Amino acid sequence: MPYFVGIDIGSAGIKAAAVDEAGNLAGFAVCPTGGSFAKNAQKAFEELLQQLCMRREDIARVVSTGYGRKLFKPADEFVSEITANARGAFRIDAGVRTVINVGGQDVKVIRLNEAGNVVNFAMNDKCAAGTGRFLEMAARILEFNVDQLGELHAEFQGVPPTLASTCAVFAETEIISLLAAGHPKPQVIAGVHYSIARRMAGLARTVGVADVIFFDGGPAENCGLVEALRNTLIRKIVVPHLPQITTAYGAALTARASEASPAADVRR
Amino acid sequence: MASEEQSRMAQSIRMHLAMETEDVLGRISMDEAPQAMGYFYRKLRQFFQQPEGLGHFDKPGIGTFCAQVPLELIEAAGARPVRLCMAAGIWDQAGGELLPAKSCSVVKAMAGMAASQLFFSGVCAVVAPTTCDGKKKCADLIETMGIAVHRLEMPPSKLSRAARNYWRESVETFMAQLQGWTKQKITRKSLHTAIHRRLMATEQFRRLCRLQTKGVLRAVDYFLVTQTGFFDDVEAWTLALSDLCAELEARVAEGRGIEKQNRPRMLLTGSPVLFPNIKVPLWIEQAGGPIVTDELCSATDMFHDAPAYDETCLHDMVSALCDRYLSPCVCACLSPNPDRIRKMISLCRQARVDGVVYQTFSGCLSYAMERNAVAKALADEKLPLLYIETDAGFEDQGQLSTRIDAFIESVQAKRRNF
Q: Is the CB of A264 inside 8 Å of chain B's CB atoms?
């Protein structure tokens, strides 16, 4: 049975996902991006092949996406992460009309139509304020791991402090001054989550928000951020089972689709 | 001591400018480039790397600050126009020390260019139309550097009779100033010759636009042609352009071209594309969307229109020139500016456009403010719009090319569904 692979080469992590002919997820692998995109992408790809007990030749088609999409030579074609993300999300839940994705260095809001096509999107400009990078910075100052932030947020009850800036550089001094003023760490973390949620909500409003939000990307695993976003947008937030790999999954689905009709290719 | 520091700065800027030019030209693939494009690549390299070697420096250079200056008058007075709108990152950086960081890159780049003295050796004076605030204040700044500046006063609107009269008077004042600078009179004959030369250029440019609509010319090449027109001798430019058109027409006849079926056709509008900052057209093209037309003061808006007059007497020709520069102007500095939307919609229909990319430079508020009106008009036409805010550098490549790729993909998907 042929498999199709999508590789999402992001700024923080590389995600590889494989689907079978029916478009169901067959396996996935994740590794950090580090300094060399191509090498680590190859590593993630090989890890995935190992998992599936397969060789490169057994894979019908590979589509790359993400920042490093054009660098991964073994790929048959590439697609932007916005299209890939939309495709993955729509396959998981055909009712999705708004996707919010937080990545390592960007935030995206995507609007879909009933056919699952992207009709509008918004993305932060070159500044990486309020992204995964920002959460990492906050975790580092507070001396926690990024994946602990969610539980710590849950410990806090009450009104979180307001962080005026989501800029990684300015927020660092702001967080330090909050700690210096005696705010407990869980409270500061809640403040960080709410400040990111505010920024995401502002971006989301520029393209319009549906009643249900599909929230993915690595930081969607952080339940504190999910809660902050829910309370800020006042809408239902759905987080998929594996939020980090939705985009890679979408790229794999693209590989499967273009194998079926090669004329549909945009490039190459 | 100041002059020593200045010459050091000029030397350093010159080096970085040469690097930037090479970097940008190096990003353009030469595989599909028409042979006749060689002329334009060469001229741009020369202009940005060794401006002295350009020739035709026998005539005094008059720098122009934007597309609103009637170039025919400069040529009729025996001078050569050089449009100084260029958005090199290194000039932007140099200008950042002179103007607020929030001002737009073009304005900062022009200030930086003036401060580094480069090109001003051949330019004896500058004409600054009083269009946007940035350009106006930049003119004030460079005047303090000892550069002769004439302000070509521009009405804030073009609809009223008063505005047209004001513009006419303003152009006449400019003519007097020009003749004072060059010590040459603008005569019926010299103006007629100058207009005729520009008409020939316009004719070739329109021929190029028709080819552009067919998608046989890459957007980057198209913009390099118009950029060369900023400083090149108009007759030499027209000749090279006609060679290019002939080569492209031959390609069309052979059935060769870069247009492939089902590629989403794009219109580019907003703040102008100014060499070396050609990244947006470059990435649109790389994403698979040919730019088939544009509404930009650095391309179509600068070269497409021609003056119309019946009698070749000086008065009629000057009147026709005044109209030629004021009537088609759709710069966002005008209020109201309904013509811009009208023009854009008509270009979209003519060139069968599938999507519009709207770029503004950070700090170019007038274009940023017109965004919503344009978006609404395009939505009524069911045309998708991608809005980009950027500046002279390449640092936003990752984000921008992702957004452009996704936009082209979504337009493509929409086309497939209908």
A: yes
